[in-house]
Structure formats: structure tokens, C-alpha cells
Amino acid sequence: MNPSMPIQHVVQFLHDAADAGIDLRVDGGWSVDALLGEQTRAHADLDVVIEQRDVSRLRDWLGAHGFRDVARDDTSTWNFVLGEDAGHQIDVHVITLDEAGNGLYGPPERGVMYPAESLTGVGRIGALTVTCISPEWLVRFHTGYELQESDLHDVGLLCRRFGIEPLDEYRHLRPFRAIGDPQRCQHDAEPLGWHCIHISDSRTPCESHRAHRRCYVGFSRGSSPAP
């Protein structure tokens, strides 16, 4: 079964975790959508940041609800996935807060952390207000690995909404703008290389534009003008 984390399960999980006294911050794709205030794409899992002191309680609580470790090549004590038979998965990122409020991620010698200001985001998933990663740091965290279409989608929307300048890996993206009339495609007047990016699809050819309720536009890979 392919993993999936629909919004109703995310809201229920976060609500129940709070009732159980487990403090979580939303990370990853659901953090992007929390900041945007709406779901913009499907999500295979829910990324959460948790302090080391709460990990045992989270494991016990989820274990009682049928969750168990999902085998991965990159599993560690500071990053692991818990899943259950219905295909719902929680990607757990474990931090230890230092005196400055930074979240040390893994052994100190790795030098990896969630800076204190990255842990201050506030967003909304459904009707639930959640603590999440701040938008500027979410954009920075989407670097240093092979980019997927979901990364282009997430970073593009964050940069557009919060006025953030794309980092080097995303220089092929131009600031997104909204298409005004969803019933009339305006791409004929635009340079070659534009693609529709629908809020629930990572990338869709222009020909499908008329079927979309909303559409965002950005240059595709390799088609942007020289900086």
C-alpha cells in the first residue's frame, strides 16, 4: 500500500498528540501547507519535529495505535519513520534544545541543527492552528539534495507568498504570479517555457489549464532567462 497522509488524519493525529501532552512541530510538506493555510498537494507522510525527552512517550503512544518502525536505509536515532497498516506514516525528526533554543539534530559533531528562529512558525491545517517551521527556513531546508517536483512546488509557493528570494538551487524559478481568469488561458502572450503549476498538482502542461480551478505560473527547468 502506498503511504498517504490525508488532511483529516493529520488534524486528528496532531489534535490527539496535543491531548496526550506530546509537543510536536510540523515540518516538511505539511509545514508548507500549514503556512499557506491550505492544502496544495498530496502528502505521503507527516514530518514532525520532537524533543528527545518526548520520544519515548511518542513511541509508546503510537505503538498503542498500531504504529511500528518502517525500515529505511537512512534510519537513525534522530530520524525514523513510524507507520501503520492503513499506510499512514509519521517521519520523526528528533532534536535536543540548547541554551539558545537551537534544536541540535543528531550528534553535536554533525553540526546540524534547527536554528531557534526556524522553530517559530505558526500555521493552520484545516481548523487546527499548529506550530511549524518558519517560511524562510523551510526554503533553506529545501536544499542540499536532488530536487523533486514537490520541492519546486513547495519552494515556489513559499517564495511567492512570503516574498522570499529563491536560493541558488532554484534560480530557474521566477517569482510566481497568479493567472487572473481561470477560464481563459493567457499563456499565448508569455515566453516559451511557461508551465501551469496547479495548487494540487506539481506541474501540468498548459493544455490542461482550462480544467484547473487555480493556476500558478513559473519557468520550467532550463527555460528561464539568464539572471
What does it look like?
With 227 residues, the protein is α+β, with helices and mostly antiparallel strands. It folds into 2 domains: 7-133, Beta Polymerase, domain 2, CATH 3.30.460; 149-219, no CATH class. Helix content is 23%, strand content 22%. It is built from 5 helices and 12 strands. The chain has helices at 7-19, 28-36, 55-63, 135-141, 149-162, and strands spanning 25-27, 46-51, 68-69, 79-83, 89-97, 103-104, 113-114, 121-125, 128-132, 177-178, 194-197, 216-219. Strands 1, 2, 3, 4, 5, 6 and 7 form a 7-stranded mixed beta sheet that branches. A 3-stranded antiparallel beta sheet has the order 10-12-11, with helices on one face. A hairpin with an 8-residue loop joins strand 6 and strand 7 (113-114). The radius of gyration is 19 Å and the shape is globular. The termini are far apart. Mean pLDDT is 79; it is low at 174-227.
Helicity level:
10-25%
Number of strands: 12
CATH architecture tag of the largest domain: 2-Layer Sandwich
> Strand content of the residues, in percent?
15-25%
The count of helical stretches stands at 5
Number of domains: 2
What best-fitting shape do the alpha-carbon axes yield?
globular
User: Helices and strands, in N-to-C order?
Assistant: HEHEHEEEEEEEHHEEE
In the predicted model, the low-confidence regions spanning at least 5 consecutive residues are 174-227
Rounded radius of gyration (Å): 19 Å
CATH topology of the largest domain: Beta Polymerase, domain 2
